[in-house]
Design a protein that fits this description.
alpha+beta; 2 helices; Ribosomal_mL43; structural constituent of ribosome
């Protein structure tokens, strides 16, 4: 990772990349966003390519919380008759 981190810093000058050695703790990536949200990704036992991919995903993320949908489908005009199912009960 030491070889890929400087290249990642140069390609992304808008990011603040800090390396810190914490003995006794698993390695992790932390993303702090402008909307004051925070995401932490554990990178224990990952290859340098996978760590770079996790860092890229943190960079591309918007920092919003993941919201679970209440229904399986989202539509502007819900059915008056109810949702369609595949099993036919006769």
């Amino acid at each position: 990772m030491e070889s890929q981190l400087p290249a990642f810093k140069e390609k992304n000058p808008q990011l603040e990349v800090i390396t810190d050695l914490n003995r006794g703790h698993h390695p992790f990536l932390k993303g702090l966003y402008k909307n004051k949200n925070e995401r932490v990704v554990c990178v224990k036992n990952l290859t340098p390519e996978d760590v770079h991919q996790c860092a890229t995903r943190l960079r591309n993320a918007l920092g919003r919380k993941v919201v679970k949908l209440k229904t399986r489908h989202v539509t502007k005009h819900p059915s008056v008759q109810g949702t369609w199912t595949t099993d036919l009960q006769m």
